[in-house]
Amino acid sequence: MPVRQQIHIDRALTNISVAYMQSADVFIADKVFPIVPVQKQSDTYFVYKREDFFRDEAQERAKGTESAGGDYDVEQAPPYFARVYAFHHDVTEQDRVNADNPLKPNEDATEFVSHKLLLKRENLWAQKYFQAGIWATEIQGVSSSPSAGQTLQFDSPSSDPVKFIKNQSTAMIERTGYKANTLVLSPYVYDALVEHPDIIDRIKYTQKGIATRDLLAQLFEVDNIYVPYAIQNTEAKGKTGAYSFVMGKHALLCYVEKNPGLKKPSAGYIFAWTGLMSAGAFGNRIVRIPMPWLGMDTERIEGEMAFDMKVVAADLGVFLKDIVS
C-alpha cells in the first residue's frame, strides 16, 4: 500500500496564513497631537509671550487723561525640520512566479513596509513626547512615602489617581489658562486604573459597572484617553525576539488644541511635509520602483514619511514617569 507521502503532497493552505502584524489602530502617533500640513521641509512659527497676556495692567482713567498702555512680545520658535524616514523590500520576478497561494509578494511587501514605518513613527513619538526631561511638570511614581515631585504609583490601593489627575489639571489651568483635555496611558497604567478599587467604587452603580475608556475619561474630566498597544522586538534579526510595549509604564496628561491655527497653543504639534508628490496626511507615501539591475522585473516596494514632532508648549503637559510598578 502506498505511504502517505506518495498519495498526498503537502501544499500551503489557501485560506490561512500566520503573520504577526499589529493593526494600525494600536498606534497612537497620528491621534494625540494635531497634524499641521506644511509645504516646505523647514520653516518657523511665532510665539506670543504668555506673561504679557496674563498681566493685570488696565487702570482706571481720570477724565481728560490717557489710558494705561502696554506691549506684548513675539518671538520666533526654533524651526521645525521634517526629516524623511524610509524603508524598502525588494520583490523579484521569481518571488511572484513561484509564490503559492495565499502568498502575494507585492501585497505582503507593502504591508511589511507600512508596518515598519508605523513602528518607527510610534518610537519617535515616544522619544519626543513620552519620556523624562521633556515637559515642564514631571511627576515620579513611587511605591511608598512620596515626597516633592512624587506620587504613589497607581497600582497601589492607597493611591488616589482621580484626585491626583484632577489636581494636576487644575494646576495647569492656574499656570496657563488651559485645562488638560487628553490623557495618554501606557497599557500597564490603563490596566492598573480599570482595576483600581477607588475607581471601581466610583463606577459600580453605572450601567455596566465596568471601568471603560469612556468612563475613565468622564472621571478624569478629559475629552480623550489613548492607550498605545504597539510592541517592538529589540533583538537583531536571527536572534530570539525580545518584545515589549513601546510606551513603557508612563502616562501623559496634556492640553491638545482640537483645531490648530493662529494663536492656538497646544502641548505638541506634528508638522507633516505634505508638499511632496502624492504624500499623505503624515507626509507618507509608498511607491513601486523598477530595479532591473537586481534581476529582470525586480521591483522595490519603498515607503517613506516626512515630518517633525515638536513640543510647542511644554507647560501644557504633565509627564507621569513610572506611574505603575
Structural overview:
Residues about 1-20 have low confidence and may be disordered. The protein is about 25% helix and about 25% strand. A hairpin with an 8-residue loop joins strand 15 and strand 16 (about 300-310). It has helices spanning about 5, 50-55, 95-100, 105-130, 160-175, 185-195, 195-205, 215-220; strands at about 35-40, 40-45, 45-50, 75, 80, 85-90, 135-140, 150, 180-185, 225, 230-235, 245, 250-255, 270-275, 285-290, 300-310, 315-320. The strands form five sheets. It has a six-stranded mixed β-sheet with strand order 8-7-17-13-9-10. The chain is an alpha/beta fold.
Features:
six-stranded mixed beta sheet; 325 residues; alpha/beta; five-stranded mixed beta sheet
Provide the residue-averaged pLDDT. 87
Share of helix, binned:
10-25%
Biggest sheet features: 6 strands, mixed
Count every beta strand, where a strand is a DSSP E run of 2 or more residues.
17
- Overall geometry: flat
Cα Rg: 26 Å
Tally of individual helices: 8
Q: How would you write the strand order of the largest sheet?
A: 8-7-17-13-9-10
- Give the oligomeric state: single chain
- Low-pLDDT stretches are 1-19
Please state the structural category: alpha/beta
What is the topological layout?
Layout: H1 4-7, E1 35-38, E2 42-43, E3 46-48, H2 50-53, E4 74-76, E5 80-81, E6 83-91, H3 93-98, H4 105-129, E7 137-142, E8 150-152, H5 161-176, E9 182-185, H6 187-194, H7 197-203, H8 213-220, E10 224-226, E11 231-233, E12 243-245, E13 251-254, E14 268-273, E15 285-290, E16 299-311, E17 317-321
Parallel strand pairs: 1-14, 7-8, 7-17, 9-10
Antiparallel strand pairs: 2-5, 3-4, 6-16, 9-13, 11-12, 13-17, 14-16, 15-16
